[in-house]
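Run log, item B.
One chain of 521 residues. Sequence copied directly from the ordering sheet:
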Amino acid sequence: MQSFYLEKQFKLLKKKKTNFFPDNWSKTYFQWMNNIQPWCISRQLWWGHRIPAWYSKDKKIFVADNEAEAKIIAKKFYKKDVELRRDEDVLDTWFSSALWPFATLGWPNKTYELKRFYPTSVLVTGFDIIFFWVARMMMMQLALVEKVPFHTVYVHALVRDEKGKKMSKSKGNVLDPIELIDEYGADAVRFTLTSMAAMGRDLKLSKNRIAGYRNFGTKLWNAARFAEINDCKPDENFTPHSVNHTLNKWIVGETARFKEKMDKSLENFRFNDAAAVSYNHIWGKFCDWYVEFSKPLLEIGDPDTRAETQSTLAWVLDQCLILLHPIMPFITEELWSKITHREKPLIHTDWPDYSVSNLLDQDADHEIAWVINLIEQIRSVRSELGVPPAAKVPLVQIQLDKRGVSALNRNSALIERLSRLSKISIELERQNGAVIIPVEGGEFALKIANFIDLPSEKSRLKKSINKIIAEVNLLEKKLSNQKFIANAPSVVIDESKSRLLELQNNLSKLSISLEQIRMVG
């Protein structure tokens, strides 16, 4: 029987009735199945499904649903009542779990649940039980229900410690998920694991990463509180494509982009990509930029702009909660019910169906992206060259095309506030004591000479560069040593390569900063 259903499995898998993600695990599956061995389905354990077989004194076997039925069968055989002894063993764990897809839905009875939910869709499992569980389920379903149990098998990686070692109690490197949840919250743990769930790679779990994603949850919570404080309530009549203000058009388009990327990531089982696009949009676009940009609009006296911004912010927050819900279900459900005061649970809410083509405004997208780029460059220069955070620095417009001038005029107050500028003026020549900031359509100059100690900053940068160069040379020498590559553990080699890449990136940034200092002074 086993060989018959093995052949049937091969045919169905080759017809792509069931697919593996990543696909290479199908090779592992076939390799195991081609070398299949007899399967003993009994185990001597304290728990499990007891084998439904009863024995008479002369060792005749009677199989039945229960002891009463077994006695009836035995009585027919012996023409009298006989004493029976039930088999003391239990079914093999994998035999019992092979029944899971249909047994949980009421089989062998023809229940509504069985008709509605079988076959199931996706099985998520580890590669180490492809043969023990996945293959047994396939065989059992084909034998008893004559249908494949699921159309997709997603094979996840192993979770290891932050150095890539398998967790072991004897080594003391086990991270207990219950303790992590108690310390950081279930959502932070879920998001961390999702963010690292790249296909074909083991997950190196560390507490620092979990703490970072807990901060992400806090950031979302604060944004929701901001919406509540500013009376940004969900509006059933709100239509995102009808907003008028440039900022609101921009965030509506960005939200559509977020939804499109999220859809693609989930459909292709790229869960780490889903986590990345969630993080980048919610923290980067929504919390960092839109919330900050919206503050003046919520404070101004124009009631129409304020009302539109309130409705837009509430809608965008809703979309963030809906799209993030599969990864962080607890905080999103809490915010949905407590902050936005919904009666219908978030888990019962429909997935959005809008598209980028309908909601993206190219002009608004270009303008706000231009503004953000300018602010980010100014902040970067200030940070890299050690300009005091509280100092308000003058910015000079040297040259700028009409499109840039239009964007600057509409957003100068935001640029000044978020870049901590004293003023923005126009001068047609390059400035002494200033760092040039190129933008699309022109360039600016940030006049920082009066706000930093140029000789001290030059000296500091040179010392840092020399220190990094020395460490880079040592690492490059080590990694070019064939004995080191041949004998060192792979974890040590990976750490050395990662450190070298980090140092090279830092060296590039410091070299740019030193060049900027030289240009200023």
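Observations after the first pass:
- The first strand starts at residue 19 and ends at 21.
- The chain is about 55% helix and 10% strand.
Flagged for discussion on Thursday.
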